[in-house]
Amino acid sequence: MWGSAPYGSIVKHFIWLITTAFELKAVIVFSGGMDSVCTAVYLRKQYDLYGITFSYGQKADQEVLIAKRFSKLLKFTDHKVLDIRFMKELYEKTNALTSPKMKIPSEFDYSIVAPIRNAIFLCIGSAWAFSKNAVLVAYGAHKGDERYPDCRPPFTKLLTRALNEGEIDGIKLGIRKRIKIWSPFMDSFSKVDLLKIGYKRLGSDIFRTWSCYSPARIHCGKCESCNNRKMAFRLADIVDRTRYGSILDS
């Protein structure tokens, strides 16, 4: 007959096995921006989060540092920062986010669309998801991102289908889990909706998220992304305590 201590350990181990067997894992493309941070807040009650951040040659290199801070605050199970700065060379002069010769606009212009940037991030994130047996790959696209082709739900659905097809044999064999790529846009969330969710959980830490496209140490306050950020706070009726500069660095 088992002694009480070993028996108790066996019971605890059995409970742990049952719990982890049904644990849902999600990989989230995580920039440290308001949208991705608030998306993580929304998902963390249901999923064990694995964050993935990309250094792709963007001017806003502050993103990586902020992403690291929030991955700890939100208690990600794991957080990886991937260096794909070679993309800056491949992108050449296609977009203002990476090209030093292009000015960052104050309102939407196609110059801030980096070719299939989200597709690249999501493909890499999905490879990690298949490896971790995660069921969800998330990114922070919302209704206000409708002008970006790789933020729209039709794109997200097509990419989900393509990537699952690329692992269909492993899925049928039971050694891979089918993934779903999801964004708040898929459920008609707006930037304001996300902000309210994030602010309720994070309080003043929400002002430490990073939205700016410029390489400044504080938000420039002039670029398209900063303007969207300020508008979201106004519409959410939240006093914006973000520090903004007055000069746009480009």
Give the helices and strands as they follow along the chain: HEHEHEHHEHHEHH
What structural class should be given to the helix and strand makeup? alpha/beta
CATH T-level fold name? Rossmann fold
The coarse overall form would be: globular
Which ranges are low-confidence, i.e. pLDDT below 50, for 5 or more consecutive residues? Answer: 1-5, 12-21
CATH homologous superfamily (4th level) name: HUPs
Q: Count all strands and give the number.
A: 5
At CATH's second level, what is the architecture? 3-Layer(aba) Sandwich
The value of Rg in angstroms is: 20 Å
Number of helices: 9
Largest sheet: 5 strands, parallel
Q: End-to-end distance, in Å? A: 73 Å
Strand order of the largest sheet: 3-2-1-4-5
CATH C-level: Alpha Beta
Residue share in helix: 40-55%
Summarize it.
This protein is 42% helix and 10% strand.
Note the topology.
Elements: H1 4-21, E1 25-29, H2 34-43, E2 48-55, H3 62-73, E3 78-83, H4 86-91, H5 117-132, E4 136-138, H6 153-166, H7 168-173, E5 180-182, H8 191-202, H9 224-235
Parallel strand pairs: 1-2, 1-4, 2-3, 4-5
Helix pairs in contact: 2-8
Explain what you see.
It contains nine helices and five strands. The protein has 250 residues and is of the alpha/beta class. The chain has a single domain, classed as 3-Layer(aba) Sandwich (Rossmann fold). It has a five-stranded parallel β-sheet with strand order 3-2-1-4-5, with helices on both faces. Helix 2 crosses helix 8. The chain is globular and about 55 Å long. The relative contact order is 0.16.
